[in-house]
Amino acid sequence: MYGLARRILRDESLAEEITQEVFLRLWNGPEKFDAARGSLRSFLLAHTHGRSVDLIRSETARRTREDTDARLESGSGRSIEEEVWDMALADYVKDALSALAVDERRAIELAYFGGHTYRGTAEILGEPEGTIKSRIRSGLKRLHGPLTAAGVGDL
Amino acid sequence: MQHQEHLNIQELLGAYALDALDDNERRVVEQHLSECGRCRTEVDEHREAAAALSGETVPPPERVWSQILVEINAEAPELAPVVSLEQARKPISIRSLGWVASVAAAVVVALSAGLITQSERIGDLKSQLADQEQQIETLASALQTDPLQQAVTAALADPGAQVANLTAGGNSGAMLIVVLPDGTGYVFQNTLEALPEDSTYQLWAVVNDKVISAGVLGNQPDIVPFHIDPEGLQGLVITQEVAGGVPQSEADPFVAWFKA
């Protein structure tokens, strides 16, 4: 939870806040979690992702994030995509992502880790929106098998 | 028409699971999901894949947990919510059972660890408070007793104080004396038998091989202050003398203490 929020927000204290918030929300409303619809892990991570994305789409956090982006890009000369790719991804995640077509992988990374809408992602990649929409879906379907079979990591 | 809508929505499910829709599309999808089990299942699978995708292991800083515990305890000090988390398991798919169980267990462990730590802290605080109360009571009772008793209490608390236990083989009683570094001393505990009224106990200090009178204590001394030269103190001796005491004693030591 914390790792995901931090990767999306690139801000440790915001990531801490989100982790607390998501956990407390589960604590206060455990009935919202339905085990029939998936694991607790994916429930918590989905909430973490949703809250993180809400935040970066708000003005303040976006500014912080853009500053970090600028710093990262000017500092290392590496793209955010590369950063994301290298950032502590478990081997089996890398393997699974490698199994995707490059196009699918890019679209999923930008949307999931970058927090972009599929429209934003399309703009960044210079592709039609419909294409990106489909790539995200087909990529996730392809990931579902190997990743969920490989097991799960920490929250 | 409805089928077409279903197909259109289906195309959005991947992006929906990644929170990559704008608000309007999201509302449309959620409306559809409330009516379409097949699409719900697909979203669940996408979310599962996305969760696995974020399969990195970055634990949050310790303070996140403590803050969570603070919040939880501020709201409800009971462990009851964990029970409702268990209850929330409702229908359980085999796939997720392990996860729910292990996470729920981890939650219980983390929380009860926190609660135990907290109750230990409360226990610590309570015993500290009790200690303080006891100190206050001791002080209060010392204040209520006479100034001499207070002086003895203070003297005994002085790290530089010497406590002498004056005894003798043949006598069952003893006399306890405390001497401070500045030479102030107190006879503070006496179990020697009372003497006839025409007699007195007299205290002698052995200083640099000389025996010097340190005070006439009376026939039944309780707390008696005295003053001696603290330098070169070798021992303390009690003799029995005639009432009023003597400048030099011919009597044998009744009880005595010598510095080791």
Our estimate of the beta-strand percent of chain A is: under 5%
Shape summary of chain A: globular
Beta-strand content bin of chain B: 15-25%
The fold-level CATH name of the largest domain in chain A is Rna Polymerase Sigma Factor, Chain: A
What is the helix content of chain A? Answer: over 70%
Oligomer: heterodimer
Q: Secondary-structure element order of chain A, as H and E?
A: HHHHHHHHH
Biggest interface, CB < 8 A? A-B, 71 and 55 residues
- The radius of gyration over CA of chain A amounts to 16 Å
Largest sheet composition of chain B: 4 strands, antiparallel
Shape of chain B: rod-shaped
Number of E-state strands of chain B: 8
What is the CATH homologous superfamily assignment of the largest domain in chain A?
RNA polymerase sigma factor, region 2, helix turn helix motif
The appropriate CATH architecture of the largest domain in chain A is Orthogonal Bundle
Description:
The complex is a heterodimer of chains A (155) and B (260). Chain A is mostly helical and 155 residues long. Chain A folds into 2 domains: 1-77, Orthogonal Bundle (Rna Polymerase Sigma Factor, Chain: A), CATH 1.10.1740.10; 79-155, Winged helix-like DNA-binding domain superfamily/Winged helix DNA-binding domain (Arc Repressor Mutant, subunit A, Orthogonal Bundle), CATH 1.10.10. Chain A is built from 9 helices and no strands. Chain A has helices at 2-9, 12-28, 40-56, 59-76, 80-86, 91-98, 102-112, 118-125, 129-150. In chain A, helix 7 crosses helix 8 (118-125) and helix 7 (102-112) crosses helix 9 (129-150). Residues 151-155 of chain A have low confidence and may be disordered. By secondary structure, chain B is α+β, with helices and mostly antiparallel strands. Chain B folds into 3 domains: 1-54, no CATH class; 62-144; 154-258, no CATH class. Chain B is built from 7 helices and 8 strands. In chain B, the strands form 2 sheets. In chain B, strands 1-2-3-6 form a 4-stranded antiparallel sheet, covered by helices on one side. In chain B, helix 1 (2-17) crosses helix 2 (23-33), helix 1 packs parallel to helix 3 (37-53) and helix 4 crosses helix 6 (94-144). Classes of the chains: A mainly alpha (155), B alpha+beta (260). The interface between A and B is large, with 71 and 55 residues.
